């Protein structure tokens, strides 16, 4: 697939993609709040600054974009056709950092969950049910 916009415009678009308060994250926060859970956001004192933290249950939730965090077997985890060496390294670094953060949190006694962007689009009720069952122990 050929990019239909200029390199400068593509660069500008990519630079505007934020890491906090994304649509999937806002959706999950809303769903969890409606389910009765109260949480903190982006705790600076925890490895990786999880997107959602439920201190009462020692649960940390990362809301990952499929493209940036390489959700395996997901149609959204595409590889850009240009600068593939750069993107390969970028994606590998993201995945390695995710693993390090997860391990550090688990070693500190936290339960770590990941909610994927595509799951929230396609099966939001299942995501909330999975999180609820994990939190409530069953």
From TrEMBL:
Enzyme Commission no: 3.1.-.-
Keywords: DNA damage, DNA repair, Endonuclease, Hydrolase, Nuclease
One term of GO molecular function: endonuclease activity
SUPFAM superfamilies cross-referenced by the UniProt entry: Restriction endonuclease-like
Lineage top rank: taxon: Bacteria
InterPro entries noted in UniProt: DNA_mismatch_endonuc_vsr, Restrct_endonuc-II-like
Biological process per Gene Ontology, one example term: mismatch repair
Top-level class of the enzyme under EC nomenclature: hydrolase
Pfam families: Vsr
Family listed: Belongs to the vsr family.
Biological role stated in the UniProt entry: May nick specific sequences that contain T:G mispairs resulting from m5C-deamination.
Protein name: Very short patch repair endonuclease
């Amino acid at each position: 697939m050929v990019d239909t916009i200029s390199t400068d415009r593509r660069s500008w678009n990519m630079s505007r993609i934020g890491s906090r308060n994304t649509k999937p994250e806002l959706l999950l926060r809303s769903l969890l709040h409606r389910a009765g859970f109260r949480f903190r956001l982006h705790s600076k004192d925890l490895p990786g600054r999880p997107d959602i933290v439920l201190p009462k249950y020692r649960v940390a939730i990362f809301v990952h974009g499929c493209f940036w965090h390489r959700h395996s077997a997901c149609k959204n985890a595409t590889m850009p056709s240009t600068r593939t060496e750069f993107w390969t390294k970028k994606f590998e670094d993201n995945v390695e950092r995710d693993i390090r953060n997860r391990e550090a949190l688990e070693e500190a006694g936290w339960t770590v969950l990941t909610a994927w962007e595509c799951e929230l689009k396609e099966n939001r009720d299942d995501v909330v049910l999975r999180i609820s069952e994990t939190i409530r122990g069953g």
